[in-house]
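To whoever picks this up:

The nightly regression suite flagged 6-phosphogluconolactonase as changed. Nothing in the input moved, so I suspect the structure step. Input below, exactly as stored in the fixture:
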Amino acid sequence: MVTLHRVSDVDELISSAALAFIDAIAAVQTPGGGLHKDGVARVVLTGGGAGIGLLRELARLDHAAKEQGPDFPALTVDWTRVHVFFGDERNVPVTDPDSNEGQARQALLSHVDIPEQHIHGYDLGAISMEHAAQAYEGEIREFAPEGFDLHLLGMGGEGHINSIFPHAEAVYEDKDFAFAVHDSPKPPAERVTLTYPAINRSQRVWFLVAGEEKAEAAAHLVAGAAAEDWPAAGAHGTEETVLFLADSAATEL
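Regenerated output under the current build:
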């Protein structure tokens, strides 16, 4: 079941999701917290306007908390105890403007105290997509063996998530955690994506959705449509699935 968190616009969506993110990760970081019971959060980031906007807001809030000092304590994320993964990546090096990892580094990761070895990228542009997918599965099994504490997702107008598109091969993958996509209908065609077996091991799955062109897909997500038709409907958390939805994308609910 999807919990609907409706907001007025994308700015309120970003603000609400950022505060909820801090609350959720701070809870994971309590002694013995999180899926792995080690107080270390495993988080999957997403791109897109709302996804990158959220990362920028997290960077701003982290800076503001540091500036105010110990006399005005604020709930914060301890970024030294976060492992970051990516829901999908284009077949480009991280220095390319289209790289999801590169955008995340610019928006957030270069501005907080996350150890470099805690940033788990796909290394695309250096190795083949099939090898990258296999290696990423190994990375997940090593550093997030119990799953993810939080998986963030954007959504396309046709309901795609990560690089899982309607009726594409990746929507039917039921074993591997990562999948090489050679024919994405949204350019660029070559990508590697996390699959449902990886997504649905997440304790929390949060969708960040704004824009009137996504209203039909949002309605199908809430209604629990068939995943092969509307891929977003196939993603769910083991404990919660939350749709942060701007009013512009809620016209068909």
